[in-house]
Write a structure and sequence with these properties.
binds guanosine-5'-monophosphate, 5 strands, 21% strand, five-stranded antiparallel β-sheet, binds zinc ion
Length: 118
C-alpha cells in the first residue's frame, strides 16, 4: 500500500533492522525500543489493523502467533515477553499496518499496562 511505512520497510524502501523474513511475514526491531528486546512482526500483506482481519487471514495470523515465541527466544527473551497489538485510535495504534509488538529481555518485570483496581 502506498504511503504505508511498514509496506516500505518490507520492500526495503525504508531501512530497518530485520530479524526474520519469509514469504508471508517480516520482523524487525522497533526504532524506539521500550525494553532491551522490542521487535515487530508484520504480515507482508497490508492489513490495516486487527480490527480489519477476516476469515481468509486465519493461517497468516496463526503463523504470526507461532513465530512470536520462536523469535522472542532467539532475540533473548529467556524469561517471558509481552505481546501487544494496538488497534485503532482508542487502542493507541500509530501505524495502520497490522503489527504485533514483542517486548522483553532483561530480568525486570515490565510495568503493568492495565491499572490494578487493588
Ligand atoms: P503502534 O503505536 O502503531 O502500535 O506502533 C508503531 C511502532 O512503530 C512504534 O513503536 C514505533 O516506534 C515504530 N516505528 C514507527 N516508525 C518506524 C520506522 O520507521 N522504523 C521502525 N523500525 N519502527 C518504526
Ligand atoms: Zn502497509
Amino acid at each position: 500500500m502506498e504511503n504505508c511505512i511498514f509496506c516500505k520497510i518490507i520492500k526495503g524502501e525504508i531501512p530497518s533492522k530485520k530479524i526474520y523474513e519469509d514469504t508471508d511475514v517480516f520482523a524487525f526491531h522497533d526504532i524506539h525500543p521500550a525494553a532491551p528486546v522490542h521487535f515487530m512482526l508484520v504480515p507482508k500483506l497490508h492489513i490495516t489493523s486487527l480490527g480489519e482481519v477476516e476469515e481468509k487471514h486465519r493461517d497468516l495470523l496463526g503463523k504470526i502467533m507461532l513465530l512470536v515465541p520462536r523469535l522472542a527466544k532467539e532475540q533473548g527473551c529467556t524469561d517471558g515477553f509481552r505481546t501487544v497489538i494496538n488497534t485503532g485510535h482508542v487502542g493507541g495504534q500509530d501505524v495502520y499496518h497490522l503489527h504485533t509488538h514483542v517486548i522483553g529481555g532483561g530480568t525486570e518485570r515490565l510495568p503493568g499496562m492495565i491499572p490494578n483496581p487493588n
